[in-house]
Amino acid sequence: MENIDLLVLRELLNWRAQHNAILVTVLRTWGSSPRPVGAMMAIRDDGRVIGSVSGGCIEDDLIRQYSQTGAVAAKADATPEIRTYGVTTEEAHRFGLPCGGTIELLLEYNPDPTLLAQLTHELDSGKLMLRSLNIHNGLVQLQRTVKPEPLYFDGEWLHIGFGPKYRMLLIGAGQLSEYLATMALFNGFDVTVCDPRHQYNQTWSVDKAKLVKGMPDDEVLAFNPDPRSCIIALTHDPKLDDMALLEALHSPAFYVGAIGSRRNSAARRQRMIDFLEQTEETLAALRSPIGIYINSKTPAEIAVSIMAEVIATKNAVNLPLHSSIKTAKDLQDSL
């Protein structure tokens, strides 16, 4: 599946060729909110919708208002509008906002398709972009950035950073990789799987994940990892994993990890120190064992554990120490 931001922008661009449409962005929230700041949806003048800004009730209200004949066309040249839901407890309950939450939305009427095309093109080319909107006159500015930019609203300009898809490179094309690749695809990652072993790469079955057959360390370099990339070794074979991990650790990838038991993970670290001129400091970013502790046993459960840790890392969540597999199992051993 594609990154939801790109899906919304791309579909909105397609609609604007023949339809009036609105882009809705979560501007601010107070209390509990089902969707984060920056979440987007687009509504076409016939009621079609993509994306979401709440649990459903706010979407229904907006669709009801703007799918009426001529409702969007009447605001075709209107400046952006701020709409607030959930100011009163009664309204919060009616629109499904938990615990009296409040959500503030920005509505843009008929975003310029030329600028939408430019934005999606830059994102498809792997660029980080900043979209700035003046809410008083509707002026939109686009510029490239060198790092992901959080949403920022100063009362006049809304600045939203957009990035290309997150990417995942898996070393090994076994059963665990198939589960993990499938989960990553559903979470909006582009997935590449590397395995030079004929007995594995000939049976790879996840069509939307790209399969490459070169040596893993070469494929890591060809992958050209960036801060929106993660690299995970899953073969248990030092000839394939170790050199690939070495290259990955020298990259800006946000997550580098390898499967293995506590004993195997310790042996890998010592092997890389003894034979690959690494130190504890250079190996500090290597995650192994990987995943969060859920007492997973099957390949599917292990994939869930790994994917959860990848998403937490992507979202800058500091997981509690006891969620790590090593800490949890060390604690069990001590009891």
Walk me through the structure:
The chain has 335 residues and is an alpha/beta fold. Helices cover 35% and strands 23% of the residues. The protein has eleven helices and 15 strands. It has helices at 4-15, 57-66, 89-94, 113-124, 175-186, 198-201, 216-223, 238-249, 262-275, 299-314, 325-334, and strands at 21-30, 40-44, 49-51, 81-85, 102-109, 128-134, 140-145, 152-153, 157-162, 167-171, 190-194, 210-212, 229-233, 255-258, 286-287. The protein has a six-stranded parallel β-sheet with strand order 12-11-10-13-14-15, with helices on both faces. A five-stranded antiparallel β-sheet has the order 3-2-1-5-4, with helices on both faces. The chain has a four-stranded antiparallel β-sheet with strand order 7-6-9-8, with helices on one face. The model has no long low-confidence stretch (mean pLDDT 90).
Comma- or semicolon-separated keywords:
335 residues, Rossmann fold, 6-stranded parallel sheet, 5-stranded antiparallel sheet, 15 strands, XdhC_CoxI, MoCofactor_Util/Proc
Beta-strand segment tally: 15
Q: Would you identify the regions where 5 or more consecutive residues have pLDDT less than 50?
A: none
What's the multimeric state? single chain
Residue fraction in strands: 15-25%
Count of individual domains = 2
What string gives the helices and strands in order? Answer: HEEEHEHEHEEEEEHEHEHEHEHEHH
Overall mean pLDDT stands at 90
Helix content: 25-40%
Please write the CATH class name of the largest domain.
Alpha Beta
| Largest sheet strand order | 12-11-10-13-14-15
Largest sheet data? 6 strands, parallel
Radius of gyration (CA) equals 23 Å
- How many H/I helical runs? 11
Organism: Alcaligenes endophyticus
Protein name: XdhC family protein
InterPro entries: MoCofactor_Util/Proc, XdhC_CoxI, XdhC_Rossmann_dom
Pfam families: XdhC_C (PF13478), XdhC_CoxI (PF02625)
